[in-house]
Design goal:
- This protein has 362 residues and is α/β, with parallel strands linked by helices.
- It has 2 domains: 2-164 and 345-361, Rossmann fold, CATH 3.40.50; 174-343, 3-Layer(aba) Sandwich (Rossmann fold).
- It is 42% helix and 17% strand.
- The protein has 14 helices and 13 strands.
- The longest helix is centred in the last third of the chain and has 18 residues, at 326-343.
- The structure holds ligand GMT.
- The site of ligand GMT has 20 residues, from helix 1 and helix 4.
């Protein structure tokens, strides 16, 4: 099949999902083109996916303002060039509207990822235009919780197609732990784009509690984003800065995540939590907020532990309990990996997308 994908590039989860999907589809012999504003971090060099950058003409007064229109133009040109049989957009704002504007006579599939519904999608301006763009097309959402929010925001019935993980790549790597922490220390990892929604200051507060409980541990932050300096400042204020490591984004996150004892998230919104899934596949239990799709990804008490938003004491206490009980932790590690492999297997989930592509073509 000739498939066009439109997504945001860079480090974001929606771009990661689109890039991984594109590569699996191409490896199965489909002709795939991926359009995005920046090359997705996870699109491997030399992959057989046709990468098409969306070029946004520079405007001295309105930098970046023309992206939605540029995406429509790039999609229209690519559809003619590659003769797409289906176009699949990721992250509805503005991609669903861009695809509608491109006036393609090709079936459209739109995947909702999170803040396109529950943050930007709540703004009446975006909500109205996005609802119009989604009307009459096939829509998917990455979790049941996001599908429910999309029904309210846009009045659409989205099919749930969850994200997936490559468990060969995201696997336990305990032998790498000494790269990041001293012998005898527990290693806690958080991977993030450091937006306010991720509540990284709460993670530092939880970590300070954990240390006060007498746990020998180090918190490893992987990634970059607007609140990274704030996180470092709070760590200094709370006197734990020397126990927090900041690692820049890497093309091999599996080498950090797979070495951890626990993975932490304290997000206030998380439609799915791809980083949590990658940790689970790596055999690393997740301690996170009981928010959105996280409670669909993490099985409370079996593959991790869920706490209420803002309850940094509970985040610390649950982690201290697990770290102090090697038997339970080992069982949770095994369950985390097994559950991630069985429920979020790439081949099965890519099949779900292919079935939807087939359905919209008839
Ligand atoms: O919606 C966003 O905030 C951006 C988006 C992204 O591109 O990083 O993240 C969302 O999509 C990911 C992939 O489906 C999910 O794993 C994230 O949970 C989701 N983020 C939020 O809901 C905050």
């Amino acid at each position: 099949m000739r498939i066009g994908l439109l997504a945001y590039g860079g480090l974001g989860g929606s771009g990661t999902v689109a890039a991984e999907l594109a590569q699996i589809l191409a490896s199965r012999g489909h002709d795939v083109a991926l359009l995005s504003n920046r090359r997705p971090f996870r699109l491997r060099p030399g992959s057989s996916v046709n990468y098409v950058p969306v070029r946004v003409p520079e405007h001295p007064v309105l930098p970046g303002a023309l992206y939605g229109l540029a995406a429509a133009g790039a999609l229209r040109a690519a559809a003619l060039r590659f003769e797409f049989e289906v176009v699949h957009t990721h992250y509805a704002i503005p991609h669903a509207a861009s695809a509608r504007l491109a006036e393609l006579t090709i079936p459209l599939v739109h995947t909702l990822h999170g803040t396109d519904v529950n943050l930007l999608g709540l703004d009446p301006v975006f909500r109205e235009v996005t609802a119009l763009a989604l009307a009459g097309t096939r829509v998917t959402a990455v979790s049941r919780s996001l599908a429910a929010q999309a029904r309210v925001a846009f009045g659409v019935d989205a099919a749930v197609v969850p994200n997936f993980v490559d468990a060969e790549r995201f696997a336990p790597r305990p032998e790498l732990k000494t790269r990041y922490v001293e012998t005898g220390e527990a290693m806690i990892v958080h991977a993030s784009n450091f937006r306010a929604i991720k509540r990284t200051p709460d993670l530092i507060r939880a970590f300070a509690h954990l240390l006060r409980m007498g746990v020998r541990a180090r918190l490893v932050f992987l990634g970059d984003g607007p609140e990274r300096p704030l996180a470092a400042r709070i760590a200094r204020i709370l006197g734990v800065r020397e126990r927090v490591r900041f690692l820049p984004p890497t093309t091999r996150p599996e080498e950090v995540v797979g070495a951890a004892d626990l993975f932490w998230l304290h997000s206030q919104e998380e439609s799915f939590g791809l980083a949590a899934l990658e940790a689970l596949a790596s055999g690393v239990p997740v301690v996170a907020t009981r928010i959105g799709g996280l409670s669909e990804v993490v099985r409370h008490g079996e593959t991790g532990w869920l706490v209420e938003l803002g309850d940094v004491h509970a985040q610390a206490a649950a982690s201290a309990r697990l770290l102090a009980d090697p038997g339970t932790l080992a069982e949770m590690r095994r369950a985390a990996r097994a559950d991630a492999r069985s429920r979020f297997h790439p081949e099965r989930i890519v099949d779900s997308y292919l079935n939807i592509y087939q359905e919209v073509r008839v």
